[in-house]
Amino acid sequence: MKRNYPKNRKPTDNMVQLMLNRYGEPYLRKLWQDNGGATIASRILMEETGLEITDIQFYYLANKYNWKRRIRSDHPIVKYVLSGRGNRERYRHIIFPWEES
What we know:
The protein is mainly alpha-helical. It folds into two domains: 53 residues, no CATH class; 34 residues, no CATH class. The protein contains five helices and two strands. Helix 3 packs across helix 4. It is elongated, with a radius of gyration of 17 Å. The protein starts with 14 loop residues before the first helix and ends in a 6-residue tail after the last strand.
């Protein structure tokens, strides 16, 4: 199938653009932050809209807009990093309890 747009331009009819146009970036970020990340946020939005929304689309938005979210002090990732086995730099989208924003 031949595309009718230039090769250097992405199509504007993909699911991420649809989500951004319908809900806006602030609402999607708040949904992602309040519900513990991409998996639950995508499920909530999928139930709300009836569209096939995956967690990968939220991962893309979190990387694109550099979203950050706070986690509880008893979260498994916190315990993993504090034990010395985990690397803090690996979790760039997480604000740990001991960090100030």
